[in-house]
Amino acid sequence: MKKVFLAGIASMALLAGCQSPPPVEEEPVVINPTAQKVIYSGMLPCADCSGIRTTLTLYRDQFDAPTRFMLREEYLQGSTVGLTAVERGDWTQDSLVKNDRQMDLYTINPETPDARRLYLRDAVNAVEQLDKNGEVIESNLNYRLLRK
Q: Is 91 exposed, middle or buried (0-12, 13-18, 19+ CB in 10 A)?
């Protein structure tokens, strides 16, 4: 009788040891309901590929101030994606007067001169990529991203 009782206790102890620990509750992800994001996308020219499918996502805080960006570039080889690059960082917004019009200038990676890129919002639903000096790229090719 003692052997059966000890075997039963040993079996329960063994099964209790196999139980997984209770799940650890993680902190809920707090999403700011008043934060905003704006997405621009389009196909930009590429010197050694078919084109660069580009998506620029700009995030703003609840006070409408620039916070972070995400730039996704898919380098196309024919109709397939050969390489995808994703970049994240900070961005700023400045005003620029050009041809007697006030426009917004978006600078991504403003603190890193080598990685900095400039976009001019010259329409309600579009931005145009500028060269490193902040000038419009003189070309017949499309450097415009449209707002989604």
A: buried
